[in-house]
Structures are given as structure tokens and as C-alpha cells.
Amino acid sequence: MKLNYRRTRLTPALRNLTKEVVISPDKLIQPLFAVEGLSKKEIIPGLTGVYRETETSLLQQVESDLEKGVHSFLLFGVPGHKHECNFNYDFTANQITAIKKRFGSDVFLSVDVCLCSYTSHGHCGILNDSMDHVINDQTVEALANSALAYAQAGADCVAPSDMMDGRIRAIREILEKNNLDQTLLMSYSAKFHSGFYGPFRVAADSAPKGEMKLKDRATYQIDPANPTDAYRSSVRDMEEGADILMVKPGLPYLDVIKDLTTKIPLPWAVYEVSGEYAAIELMAEHNLINRERAHLESWTAFFRAGAEMVITYGARNAREWLQRN
Ligand code: PBG
After folding, report:
1. Separation of 116 CA from ligand 1 center, angstroms?
2. Is 191 an annotated catalytic residue?
3. Which of 10, 157, 160, 220 holds its CA 20 to 30 A away from the CA of 192?
4. Position 174 confidence tier, pLDDT thresholds 50, 70, 90
5. How many domains, the chain?
6. Is 121 part of a structural domain of the chain?
7. What are the E-state strand segments in 36-156?
């Protein structure tokens, strides 16, 4: 007898039957950016087909995404006025209300909880007077208040991406106190201090800016060289009451995805971040790779490594790309 491993690869039907990883739009989450004060939607360099939306174009975009089989979204609200503290969450809350009023339970709406689009300096929290440190507990209080505002506006899920200590417990407690025990909590529990967030920071107007000692997010996001920190932080967030955990970015952290999804028994999301997404888009623009195949291959890697869901800027293209490839 000769071993023949090629028999199961012979036809598309056989390859489909034997596939271990099956991708579907049901497993993908589409990020949305709603920007206060825009008169026209704007393109985002590197993120083809994703826009900084106006209040009106946001609803049109969700409608067209639903037609393409996408039901899950991650909303980023970008307010027009920035502050150092005492933030106003109304703009984002109003977008949530508008989406839920129009689409109801057809849409699973997660909302990013962070302050980097709200602060004048672009950091994810409230700074001390010398502007060299993010004050943890004061920031957590503001984050919990914003999560409450989003949940009361109708968000199905709140997703803190700030990386402060104790925010999951604080958010879970404030939700429970306000009888919002059905609201899911998705923690960016393994979020690394990555160089791949560039295009996003343009989209969300959230890069650290201005003259200050604290130049980057290294004092709150996880060091790429410390997988144990990612494990410890994820266990903590599970214990504090998260429903879903996340690894972010995706491709440079496949080992972390594999390891954490094996060890920690919660549903896992992977965020294919703006820089990884844009890398594929830019290579494709130069005819160096096939865009659709490269995106599908990246998503396959996330599921193969153990993710249950993937947050990707390309969710709205998935059905089309899957049909063609
Ligand atoms: C905000 C936040 C960031 C992303 C999601 N939420 C950027 C950052 O931490 O600077 C990145 C997403 C992406 O790059 O696609 N805290």
C-alpha cells in the first residue's frame, strides 16, 4: 500500500468536506467609526472600504453590512471635543441608540470603552499634573461611567481596550447595580503595546500628542516580549467577570492565541488590527499578493490557533471573498 495524502485534496468538494476550519461572516465582527462633527464620510488611509462615518452614513453602512451577512459590530465613538477629565459620553451613546432603534436585535452591537478618543492628549486615561502617568483608579471610574452610558443606550456588549487595572470588576459592578445583567463584557485582556495600531489612530484621532513626558502607551499596554503578563491579565479579567477575552494584535501573536485559548476556558476573540490589515492592502495595491486570499488565510490562522471570533476591517467583504476563493 502506498500512502496517498493527495486523495483528499483532489476536488473542491473533497477539500471542503475535509476542512477543519470553516470561516463564515457569522464569526466576524466589523469595526465602525462614528465621528462627531463630520459633514461627509472620510476614507481611512490603509483601511480600504472602512470610513470615518457621519451620523447618517453610519446607519447606511450598517444596513449594507447586514445585507452582506455581517451581524456583529464593534463601534468606536470619536467625540468632537476633547477634555482632560469630566468627559461627555453623549455622542457615542446617541449613535448606539440610533443603531439599536433602527436595527434592534438584528445587530449585535459591541462598543469600545476607552478614553483615547476623548482626551486632549490622546492617552487612554486621566493623567497626573506632571503628565507623566495615567492615574489608574480615577480612569477606571470614568471608564465604568462610560460603559454604563453605552449599556443604558442599548449596547449589547461593552469592550474595554484601555488596559487599566481593575476595570473589568468596576464595569461589571456598575452594570449589576443598574440592572444591566444581560450586557456582555468583552475584555481586551491580552492587548499588547504594538507598533501595528497606526491606521487606527488616524481613524479614531487617538494617537498620544503634544509635549509631554508620557510619549507612548508602554506603561499600560502589555510588552510584546511578555506572554506571561498576557496570561496573568487574562486570568484576572476572567475572574473579574469578563464574558469574552481577546488577543490583540493577531498575526504577530499566534503563539499567544494558541496558548491562552488552550488554558483559559472562555470564548476568545482575536483583533486583526489596522496595521496588519493595511499591510495586506498595501501589498495588494502593488500587485505583490492576492488580497482576498491573504485576508482569508490570516483569518484561517486565527481560528486554527483557537479563536472563536475575529474582529476584522474586512468582515463586510467576507461573503464575497469566500464565494470567489
Ligand atoms: C484604543 C484602541 C486602539 C485600538 C483599538 N482600541 C489603539 C491603541 O491602543 O492605540 C487599535 C485597533 C487597530 O489598530 O485596529 N485604546
Report:
1. 9
2. yes
3. 157
4. very high
5. 1
6. yes
7. 42-43, 51-53, 72-78, 108-113
Q: How many CA atoms lie within 13 A of 209 on its CB side?
A: 14
Which among 37, 28, 93, 99 is positioned nearest to 63, based on CA atoms? 99
Peptide bond into 25 cis (omega under 30): no
As given in the structure block, the three cell numbers for residue 42 are 472620510
Cβ 201 under 6 angstroms from ligand 1: yes
Q: What count of Cα atoms within 13 Å lies in the side-chain half-sphere of residue 298?
A: 29
Using the mean position of ligand 1's atoms as its centre, give its distance from the Cα of residue 15 in Å: 36
**16-29 pLDDT per residue, tens:** 999 999 999 999 99
Q: Is 119 in the pocket of ligand 1 (CB under 6 A)?
A: no
- Strands 72-78, 51-53: pairing is unpaired
Would you say 264 and 238 are in contact if contact means Cβ atoms under 8 Å apart? yes
In DSSP terms, 235 is beta-bridged to none
Domain range for 277: 23-324
Q: Are 295 and 5 in contact (CB under 8 A)?
A: no
Q: What is the pLDDT of residues 234-270, one digit of tens each?
A: 999 999 999 999 999 999 999 999 999 999 999 999 9
Centre a 10 Å sphere on the Cβ of residue 169 and count the other Cβ atoms it contains.
Answer: 17
> pTM for the full model?
0.97
Residue 2 located in a structural domain: no
Asked about 100 being catalytic, the answer comes back as no
Backbone angles phi, psi at 117, to 5 degrees: -85, -5
Report the CATH number that the domain containing residue 257 is assigned in CATH: 3.20.20.70
Q: Do the domain assignments include residue 4?
A: no
